[in-house]
Amino acid sequence: MIKVTDITKSYGNRENLFPILRGISLEIQDGSFTVILGASGSGKSTFLNVISGLEPPDSGRVLYDKTDITALSDKALTKFRKAAVGFIFQQYFLLPNMNVEKNVKMGADLAGNKDYKTVIQAVGLGEKLHKYPSELSGGEQQRVSIARALAKKPKVLFLDEPTGALDEQTGRQILDYIYRLQKQYGFTIVMVTHNENIAEMADTVIKMNSGKISEINTNETKKTAYEIGW
Fold first, then answer.
1. CA 219 from chain center: how many Å?
2. What 3 state SS string does the chain have?
3. 154-180, pLDDT tens digit by residue?
4. Contact between 173 and 139 (Cβ < 8 Å)
5. pLDDT digit string, tens, across residues 196-223
6. Can you give the pLDDT at residue 106?
7. How confident is the model at residue 110 (pLDDT cuts 50, 70, 90)?
8. For the chain, first and last CA: distance in Å?
C-alpha cells in the first residue's frame, strides 16, 4: 500500500513562493488502478512526481508499506525507484542513439527480464526493432516508452497522459494491454490524465483542484478500454 500523509509542495523562492500541493493525504491499495483527474495547474502531475519519488515534498510522508521514501538518501531512493517503480510520461525520454529493441532492453535489464521482445510485439512494434527514435512517429515513440516501462515488471506503474500522443485505436490497444498485464502480474497503476473517459476503467478516481483533493470516487463497475468513450 502507498500511504501519503499531509504532502505539501511549493515552487519559487521565499519572496515569491507558489504553493502547488496543499496538504494531501491518501491511501492507494496494492494492485489497484487509480486515475487522477484535474485541470491544468491543479497539481496532479506534481503529485505524481512526489509520490513516485521523482521530487521531494516540502513536508509530509510517502510510505510504500513500511518504507518511508521521503526519508531515504538520494542513493537509496534511486535504488528504490529502479527496483519498484516504472514511469510513462508525455515526453518519451528515449535514447536517440539506441534502436527500439535497445531502448526497451534498458528497462528489462533492471528486472532481469529476458522476454522483453514479447512486450515490444504487444505494443505493435515487432517489425521496428531496429528503428531509431528519429525514424518513428510520435505515437510510435510513446509506444516504445510504454514497452520500456512494462519490460521492467514494476510493482507500481506511474503514467502521466500515456495516450496523449496516440490515435484512438492505438490508445485503446495500449490501455487494454496495460490493463491485462496488470491483472496478470498484479502491479499497481497510478495514472494522471485529462481524458475523463479513462477514469471509467479505474478502481478509484481522484479529482484534484488547486493543489488539493476535491473528490474521491470508487467505480463499482469498471469498463474495458474498448467500452469507454474517447
1. 20
2. CEEEEEEEEEEEECCEEEEEEEEEEEEECCCCEEEEECCCCCCHHHHHHHHCCCCCCCEEEEEECCEEHHHCCHHHHHHHHHHHEEEECCCCCCCCCCCHHHHHHHHHHHHCCCCHHHHHHHCCCHHHCCCCHHHCCHHHHHHHHHHHHHHCCCCEEEEECCCCCCCHHHHHHHHHHHHHHHHHHCCEEEEECCCHHHHHHCCEEEEEECCEEEEEEECCCCCCCCCCCC
3. 999 999 988 887 889 888 988 998 898
4. no
5. 999 999 999 999 999 999 999 999 999 9
6. 92
7. confident
8. 30
The model scores a pTM over 0.85: yes
Show the cell assigned to 121. 510485439
Q: Cell digits for 161?
A: 497522459
